[in-house]
Design a protein that fits this description.
The complex is a heterotrimer of chains A (219), B (283) and C (223).
Chain A (H helix, E strand, L loop, with lengths): L3 H40 L4 H16 L2 H11 L10 H26 L3 H9 L4 H31 L11 H12 L2 H34 L1
Helix pairs in contact in A: 1-2, 1-4, 1-6, 1-7, 1-8, 2-4, 3-4, 4-6, 5-6, 6-8, 7-8
Chain B lengths: L2 H25 L8 H8 L1 E6 L8 E3 L2 E3 L1 H13 L2 E6 L2 H9 L5 E7 L2 H6 E3 L4 E2 L2 E6 L15 E5 L3 H11 L6 E5 L2 H9 L5 E5 H10 L4 E4 L8 E7 L5 H16 L2 H10 L15
Parallel strand pairs in B: 1-4, 1-5, 9-10, 9-11
Antiparallel strand pairs in B: 2-3, 5-13, 6-13, 7-13, 8-11, 8-12
Chain C lengths: L5 H4 L2 H35 L2 H16 L2 H11 L9 H27 L2 H9 L4 H31 L11 H12 L2 H36 L3
The chains are: A mainly alpha (219), B alpha/beta (283), C mainly alpha (223).
Chain lengths: 219, 283, 223
């Protein structure tokens, strides 16, 4: 049932596409992290309007299926004056906006876990709000939420399987195209699943290790 | 918290979200371009949106693009003095992508219909596209198109072939269940798995598939669809006219010197009699 | 953009049936996922090594691959293994299996959070293991894990959009289909966004309602 020469022929092509998938996922994690910090802070703002704004962002980007978001952003960008972004950029924008909503909730939890006394002390030392955010809140929140952030990376890599709708030849699209011409659907899709596991299983393992060490440290 | 307030809050949030989404629609006018041909020439590159799972027009062999589109556009590009860059998208994304100006023209090719002609600017046709059925090679219960009555048939989602199948199915005595596939190859796979008894697609496509896998598939003669043609297309905006005119001129030249016929013979198995220039589609 | 409501009013029947298909596959997938998830969690917490190890592998494999790929394998790969499911059963199975591993992890955390002393006390009183799970652990952990469960249920709601690739005529399939038929791509997508937002928001609000109810019920119980 398995066609060994075909597997050898397709593997390098899938490996190249895996790199595309990784690139957009990593970029989306970075930009999503920035969005997440901003939106997460908004959610904890003392000003009700800002809190609502943060809430609305999360509501929209967590409430709509990613497939629909990607299509919408893709058709929508030209209307906001961005007609010529490449598929890669469109995919990164789409994934980052969605990741931002999830990371915002993760960061909010992280921010809340920081003892209030620390911030009071920092305020007494004359730190500005921005300094407090960058030097005290973000570093600690990241340490506390690292397992969740690694899990978010896994979710992003999986979510990126939908980016072909904006024209990017990612891992999934490449495998589909290969299957369409060699008619070996099962073999090609099993390989596809294998390539995702290649990245995600070690990541999941790392997340659980991080979680355990975090538990030991806080216990 | 009562059930009533659950609904009220949901719709409150929803209205905020909808207002935010509509904001950019209301304030930003679409940008106006002067001349698409000039833009393409300046960039030195014509970007073509297509679907890489549409053999024999576009498909991959060992990861490389193959088929009629690649060679025909190569020639068109030489005539116009520009390079060609193909962009591969799932079919339901291709026409919206053209409207969103993600690429200059659509390869496909797609069937010229009256409704599409109103919306898009077509280049002259490149092949015949009449819709027929692909059935299982050993399935004797399907020997003519009418035999699909009461059975399940597949077609590509968002395609003219699907519309034609629906119209044909409506004329049959028993209901035909129609499944819509994001790409045709999944429909072929389902036909092999016997979940469906036939796939409706244009004759060049299914002839190619049946020739490749004659142990699995056969073409059901005669085609059930009305005579129709495949063409490339661009946007209907005034700024796109120059580009379509240039493509038309290049294609006419290839018509006249026999290069188009040679490509048809190579990829579609036979030369095809297609209208030169503008024509009135049958549906 | 001119908004033409006739795009939707002309297709009200299709949209309605698409909505029902989404609701149907979603709820069936959730029920299947919860049942499978509970089985997996119980086997993980109480089973021996030979049960736990393969389950762990299964969970990791499902969690590491996109739902889209799993769905493809179940639907287009199934016939090669002699399992030829129709689109809707395949979709529900895919959704249920995908959800089950996440539900299982939620249940497992719940089980582990119920104080050990209670289990020992139950053991002393001669309560069987099964009784102990259903009478002591499940009610207590339900309160705690309800938010996480509701969250996963909304995730599954959104995953139903992917079912269109195996030809299930759910909401996304129907509305994008109307989009290509009428060329009203942006309008139909906007409609889709609103449709899913309503579903997801209603679900999470109902979850909150349930939380307050269950919380009130639990606190009324004599301890």
């Amino acid at each position: 049932m398995f066609d060994w020469p075909l597997l050898q022929q397709n593997a390098p092509l899938l490996l190249g596409a895996l790199w595309v998938t990784l690139q957009v996922s990593i970029a989306a994690l970075v930009f999503g992290f920035v969005i997440g910090i901003v939106v997460g802070s908004l959610r904890l703002s003392p000003i009700p309007l800002l809190r609502r704004l943060g809430g609305a962002y999360i509501f929209v980007f967590r409430g709509i299926p990613l497939l629909v978001q990607l299509l919408f952003i893709y058709y929508f960008l030209p209307r906001v004056g961005l007609p010529n972004v490449s598929p890669t950029v469109a995919a990164i924008i789409g994934l980052s906006l969605a990741a931002g909503a999830y990371i915002a909730e993760i960061m909010r939890g992280g921010f809340l876990a920081i003892p209030g006394g620390q911030l009071e002390a920092a305020g007494l030392l004359g730190m500005s709000d921005a300094q407090m955010l960058m030097r005290i809140r973000v570093p600690q929140a990241v340490r506390l939420t690292l397992p969740a952030l690694v899990n978010e990376m896994i979710l992003l890599i999986k979510a990126s399987s939908l980016v072909s709708v904006v024209g990017l030849a990612d891992l999934t699209r490449t495998a589909q195209n290969l299957a369409a011409s060699d008619y070996m659907f099962v073999q090609d899709y099993l390989m596809l699943a294998g390539f995702y596991c290649l990245i995600n299983v070690p990541l999941a393992y790392a997340a659980s290790l991080l979680e355990r060490s975090l538990k030991e440290r806080t216990a | 918290m009562s059930l009533d307030s659950v609904f009220r809050r949901t719709f409150n949030r929803l209205s905020i979200a909808a207002a935010l989404a509509l904001l950019p629609l209301a304030v930003l006018p679409s940008s106006a371009h002067a001349d698409q041909l000039a833009d393409v020439k300046k960039a030195g590159e014509l970007v073509v949106g297509t679907e890489m799972q549409f053999a024999p027009f576009d498909f991959l062999e060992a990861g490389k693009q193959k088929g009629l589109n690649a060679e025909l556009f190569e020639a068109l590009g030489q005539e116009m003095g520009v390079k060609i860059k193909f962009l591969d998208l799932p079919w339901p994304s291709v026409l919206p992508g053209l409207e969103a100006k993600k690429f200059d023209v659509v390869a496909g090719p797609i069937i010229v219909t009256k409704a599409r002609k109103e919306r898009y600017h077509f280049v002259s046709p490149i092949a015949e596209a009449t819709v027929a059925l692909l059935a299982g090679a050993k399935d004797d219960s399907i020997s003519k198109p009418e035999d699909i009555a009461g059975k399940t048939v597949g077609a590509g989602k968002g395609s003219a072939q699907l519309e034609e199948l629906k119209a044909f199915a409506a004329t049959l005595p028993q209901k035909v269940t129609i499944r819509e596939y994001v790409d045709n190859n999944q429909a072929y796979a389902d036909l092999a798995a016997k979940r469906i008894v036939a796939v409706a697609n244009s004759l060049p496509n299914i002839s190619f598939v049946a020739a490749q896998k004659s142990n699995l598939y056969k073409v059901v003669q005669p085609p059930f669809g009305k005579k129709s043609y495949f063409a490339y297309l661009g946007r209907k905006d005034a700024d796109a006219d120059s580009l379509i005119a240039a493509l038309d001129a290049a294609l006419t030249k290839m018509h006249d010197d026999g290069r188009l016929a040679a490509l048809q013979k190579k990829w579609l198995g036979a030369e095809m009699d297609v209208p030169k220039g503008d024509f009135e589609p049958t549906w | 953009m001119t908004f033409d409501p006739s795009i939707f009013t002309d297709h009200l029947g299709d949209i309605g049936s698409g909505f029902l298909v989404t609701l149907g596959t979603w709820s069936s997938g959730v029920v299947l996922g919860l049942a499978l998830g509970m089985l997996i969690a119980v086997a993980q917490v109480f089973g021996n090594r030979f049960v736990r190890a393969p389950l762990r592998v299964f969970i990791e494999l499902i969690r590491s691959t996109p739902f889209l790929v799993q769905l493809f394998l179940v639907y287009y790969g199934g016939p090669s293994f002699g399992i030829s499911l129709d689109p809707i059963p395949a979709g529900i199975l895919g959704l249920g299996v995908y959800g089950s591993v996440y539900f299982a992890e939620i249940f497992r955390t719940g089980f582990e959070s119920v104080a050990r002393g209670q289990l020992e006390a139950a053991d002393c009183l001669g309560i069987t293991r099964l009784q102990c799970i259903w009478r002591i652990q499940v009610p207590q952990m339900l309160v705690m894990i309800l938010p996480a469960l509701v969250n996963m249920v909304t995730v599954l709601c959104k995953e139903t959009a992917v079912l269109s690739i195996i030809t299930i005529p759910e909401l996304t399939m129907v509305l994008t289909g109307i989009g290509s038929e009428t060329f009203a791509f942006v309008e139909t997508l906007l409609m889709l966004c609103i449709g899913y937002l309503i579903l997801v928001e209603l679900c999470s609000r109902l979850g909150m309602l349930l939380e307050t109810r269950v919380g009130r019920f639990m606190s009324r119980q004599p301890r």
